[in-house]
Design a protein that fits this description.
Helix content is 80%, strand content 0%. The radius of gyration is 20 Å and the shape is elongated. With 172 residues, the protein is mainly α. The two termini are 28 Å apart.
Length: 172
């Protein structure tokens, strides 16, 4: 059981964020996506502990299919198909490879953003996420507009470098 626990912890560490982003593309609700992914990991953990022969040859694919199915189940149960879109049409519009690739890229980007120095991250998110202008950010933090620009340029550089490092770590 010790090794199974380590495996599930490692899987959770590497796949939680990309799977949450993947589920969000389906359910359009971040909290529900987190619940779906946590539920999938809980089910996987139970399966690993209850079934003696829990062999999965491609765990990444298994997790993505599990999250996709649970997301579609959620949509079906919540009657979100009343707009006339059938279950089959929804599946066809969301190409698995594209959604999976986009969720992995977004996860790499957010991991890199999380790794930014605190003030640099705050300035960057206020500008990019919240849409504040450089002058507004400068006034908020009592810094110059030039300093705001420096933080944003530094953030872009570190995000590019950080996302590349995460990619190389995970896929090499």
């Amino acid at each position: 059981m010790g090794r199974d626990r380590l495996n599930i912890d490692e899987l959770f560490k590497f796949y939680y964020r990309p799977l949450c982003l993947y589920a969000t593309h389906y359910v359009q609700d971040v909290e529900m996506a987190k619940d779906i992914v946590q539920d999938c990991f809980s089910s996987l953990w139970e399966k690993m502990n209850n079934e003696k022969s829990c062999e999965v040859s491609n765990m990444k694919a298994y997790l993505y299919v599990m999250v996709k199915n649970r997301s579609l189940d959620y949509l079906s149960l919540e009657n979100l198909f009343k707009s006339g879109v059938s279950f089959t049409e929804l599946e066809e519009t969301l190409l698995d490879e594209e959604v999976e690739e986009r969720s992995v890229m977004e996860a790499r980007m957010w991991t890199a953003i999380d790794a930014l120095p605190e003030r640099c991250r705050e300035v960057f998110l206020l500008h990019k996420r919240d849409g504040l202008k450089y002058q507004e950010i400068a006034e908020k933090f009592h810094i110059s507009v030039h300093t705001v620009d420096s933080h944003i340029q530094k953030a872009f550089r570190l995000i590019r470098e950080g996302a590349y490092k995460v990619y190389m770590f995970l896929f090499n």
